[in-house]
Write a structure and sequence with these properties.
With about 260 residues, the chain is α/β, with parallel strands linked by helices. The strands form five sheets. Strands 1, 4, 7, 8, 10, 13, 14 and 15 form an eight-stranded mixed β-sheet that branches. Strand 2 and strand 3 form a beta hairpin.
């Protein structure tokens, strides 16, 4: 498999989830006892992609500390406090290789990516640090390779926030409770880019989702990979509680469950 790095944007302030983000960055908010960032890394890793660049900003030190201590956090160990000797009693090893890069406290999405230009000389992937999906990453890459354009965005159709009704006069003819495809196609992250995307980025104040993507559209360089399956962002406490419920009940579509 060709080595393709994945950029995770993990530096925003997460103001809409302030119940949690006053003490930690949003990617470190936990679902099932693990940061959502951990879940995102596992989505890519399950598909065989294990090299990551995490673009840090707000409270980036929390993410750094987590990965610095990750080996011991995942394993059981004994320690002799007199000698300082540590003995790992079960050895859970991850294949992840992670670059943790400070991309500025106030940098915007395109600005964070722009700061990583010297690290990304080949095809790479990018997604947000607050959304999970059961996207088939290998098929996404294959689709991107097939069209030879600069960029691919994964389009998703989130569940409607409210149930829908079909009404005839004063009679309800049909009632649907929050269908998965209740809304139109939206940007679901899970991008694939060629290095030429950096020609569209200009400094820390660049918002990836505005001029860069808009100009890629004008140049006919942005293609769409339609994902009909599960996708959910974690913008609010309500979103977090939904993801938590799915995980606890072993109904999380982004996870391959092994009993």
């Amino acid at each position: 498999m060709i080595i393709i790095k994945t950029v995770i944007l993990a530096g925003g302030f997460g103001t809409r989830l302030s119940e949690e983000t006053v003490i930690k960055p949003k990617p470190m908010v936990e679902v099932g006892g693990k940061p959502i960032l951990w879940h995102i890394l596992n989505i890519y890793s399950t598909n065989g992609y294990n090299q990551f660049i995490i673009a840090l900003g707000y409270k980036g030190q929390v993410i750094k500390e987590y990965f610095l201590n990750y080996y011991y956090l995942q394993n059981d160990f004994s320690i002799n406090l007199k000698t300082g000797k540590v003995n790992v009693t079960n050895n859970i090893i991850s294949d992840w290789e992670i670059d943790l890069v400070d991309t500025g406290l106030n940098s915007l999405t395109g600005g964070r990516l722009h700061r990583l230009q010297h690290r990304l000389k080949e095809t790479f992937m990018l997604t947000y640090g607050d959304g999970v999906a059961n996207v088939d990453i290998k098929k996404l890459i294959s689709f991107h390779r097939s069209h030879s354009r600069i960029a691919t965005v994964t389009a998703v159709r989130p569940a409607a926030r409210f149930g829908g009704m079909k009404i005839d006069g004063d009679t309800v003819e049909e009632f649907k409770e929050k269908p998965q495809t209740g809304e139109g196609w939206i940007n679901g992250g899970f991008f694939v880019f060629e290095p030429e995307v950096f020609d569209y980025l200009h400094g820390d104040t660049t918002i990836l989702e505005r001029e860069p993507l808009e100009n890629l559209v004008k140049d006919r360089q942005l293609m769409v990979y339609r994902h009909e399956g599960f996708w959910q962002c974690m913008d609010t406490l309500r979103d977090k509680e939904l993801l938590e419920s799915l995980w606890v009940n072993k109904q999380a579509p982004w996870k391959v469950w092994v009993d």
